[in-house]
Specification:
Layout (H helix, E strand, L loop, with lengths): L1 H16 L13 H13 L3 H14 L5 H17 L3 H16 L9 H15 L8
Helix pairs in contact: 2-3, 3-4, 4-5, 4-6, 5-6
Length: about 130
């Protein structure tokens, strides 16, 4: 009985330790791969890694669609909010809104980004410490 339990424990440890990490993220990987990896990191509460992946996407995919670009920027700002970096998050959300304002409706910029960004901006503004008079 003890040997069966020990064998089961060893098998479980080997299964966990043999789980391989995903291959390195290629600079020209499809946006879906970047977003999947970033979401997986965020799901593991590794917000810094997730932000790094979104930033790598922005750096490596300058010709990405407006939807993907604004989505990545929005996710970075949202992750900063989750980390409690409210002033940085506020600045990012304001930047997104300013850049969205510069685009016309035919540009492919997603309307949902503007709505969510406005909501999140108001939320972080309420959390940024006010200067003492």
């Amino acid at each position: 009985m003890k040997s069966a339990l020990a064998l089961a424990m060893v098998a479980a440890l080997l299964a966990v330790s043999c789980k391989s990490a995903p291959p390195p993220l290629a600079d020209d990987a499809p946006s879906a791969i970047y977003f999947q990896r970033a979401q997986a990191a965020a799901d593991d509460n590794d917000f810094d890694k997730a932000m790094g992946i979104y930033q790598k996407f922005l750096d490596n995919q300058p010709n990405a669609s407006h939807e993907d670009t604004f989505s990545a920027r929005y996710e970075i700002a949202l992750l900063k909010k989750k980390k409690g970096k409210f002033a940085e998050s506020e600045a990012d959300f304001q930047s997104i809104l300013a850049d969205l304002g510069d685009l016309d409706k035919s540009s492919g910029a997603p309307g949902w980004i503007k709505l969510l960004t406005q909501k999140m901006l108001q939320d972080v503004k309420d959390k940024v410490p006010k200067p003492k008079a």
